[in-house]
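Figure-free illustration: sequence to structure, shown twice.
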Amino acid sequence: MDAGWFMLVAMLLPVAAISGWWAARRGARRAESGGALLHPDYFRGLNFVLNEQPDKAIEVFVKMLEVDSETVETHLALGNLFRRRGEVDRAIRIHQNLIARPSLNRDYRSMALLELGMDYMRSGLLDRAEGLFKELVEIGAHTHAALQQLLVIYQQERDWDNAIHTARRLGSSSGERLDPLIAQFHCEQAGEHLAAGREKEGRDGLRRALNTDPKCVRASLIEAQIAVDTGRTKAAIKAYRRTELQDPDYLPDVIAPLGRCYRELGQLDEFMKYLREIIDRHGGITPLLALTDLIAEREGEAAAIKFISTELRRRPTVRGVNRLIEYAMNKASGEALEDLRAIRELTSSLIEDRPIYRCNRCGFDAKRLHWQCPSCKNWNTVKPVHGVEGE
């Protein structure tokens, strides 16, 4: 018997025990009436559950709906169990039969509607699920859960207008701060507009994203790329540098394009100054390597080796050691060069195999940045990896 069936039996057996105790307590009065606390079919259904015969158990419990109102919660639990086991058709059958019952009270009906909506979600029938969750919101039953599921549906369907509207309602009803999530939806809309050549609508979407969440790094990066594409290099620099104040964890994604902008304007001195500042404030191997390369370009490799060696003593990283070996190889020969080459192969393999990004919610590893984690579906949780093998 698997864990799911065990949980259901654990729930059903106490009911049977309590019913027996209650029947004994009431004694002769119950005997005279010939009644019982639970219909005999309840125990027949329990027997089918114990013997893992789900279809026969369903038949018994559905039949009992017509004669015993005390087993509604058992039906809800059984349907929920089937859904969690992946037997969605059986769950749907149970919950549909509950809803079809005329005498079912309002609370139980709303619970059955919610469960049926979850069944439809599990089976991919999003339009049917959406209809049920909307009904629950309209009648004010299980509103929070229904809005949460509607939000999932609209994200899957990429219906960003409804996603934004639903997230706002959910935030208002629960007190949750969903501004960062809503800003991501605005960025999704902006991206679709820009891909279709609707630049004005795209810019408007980015502005709404930043108005909703001033710390939205994604909006700043898209804004910067638009500025680069349209030849507004100073505006691009401003947008890229804004990310440090929004979330410095994303600085590694800014360094390379920001360096190209400064180079285009002939302002590498200004860029080197900025790199020194963010290294002091935040550390990170990406700005350190960028500054090392600029020092090598302007002052020579000896100065670059001295600089990176000093920094690596403070904050050692695999990428930093790998770059230091590259510089050392340029000055080595013979056996020393071969030894350095062997070491560099090891450090390079470590760099190539490691993930660049990781979700701080579920631990999903990735080689590229995802604004929504492909694994846990949370937004804005995938960030550059830090530490000896990362930043």
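We now fold a second protein in the same way, so the two outputs can be compared directly.
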Amino acid sequence: MKVDLLTSKGLAGKTAIVTGAGQGIGFEICRQLALAGATVVLNDIEESLAEEAAVRIREAGNCIACPGDSSDLAFIRQLVARAEAETGGLDIVIANAGITLFGDFLAYPPESFFKVMEVNLGGTFFLAQESAKVFIKQGRGGSMLFTSSVTGHQAHKNLAAYGMSKAALEMLAKHLVLELSPYGVNVNTVAPGATLTERTAADGGYEATWSALTPMGRPATPTDIAAAALFLVGDSARHITGQTLVVDGGWSAVSPSPYEPESVKQ
């Protein structure tokens, strides 16, 4: 069921970049931004996915597809420049793109480690850097949001590299408080817990497992995460910066592991 978070056009006239938005959480954030009146520059590494997503979002508002590798600095510069050139400015940047490569710590290969860091950390860091230059040039501030994860707060089996990258994003947001507050730019992170998306739904037991493990009785929906995202990049959150909003139905308060299902009964 589709849910519209904002009935008014509270973001009218603003431009937002969202990476990793061809489906799932990123897509729903884009849809809600468009419904709120923003012009959305939607990025995904898969061209067909980006184009199809943009077509769907245009039913709600303005959306420009910009496919490409959001971990590549040359593309990041093109993405930011295109958003500025085609819409006349930039107001919101949401670094949502990321990859998860599971693996046992003792056997985790270097190529997997460096790929996770390149996408999750490098892509976010340099998108923030390029966007900040535009915000400063414009002189009217802006909002940045990074997508972290509950695995940046609680250890999760076979996700040492991923969890490390997500915790680092939260520290980046804190550091950018020092760097960007003088220019009126606020920077926050949203940390989703288990979320039912196209990808996770493909795992037949995902919803049942995480419904049992989550105190609120179900995994998050993309709209749950989008609601937090829209708040943090909206005018109501202009005095909030360097913070992380965890959206996990209470899971991180108790942290039962999917690898220890009996813990749910205790």
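Summary for the second example: Confidence is low (pLDDT under 50) at residues 261-266.
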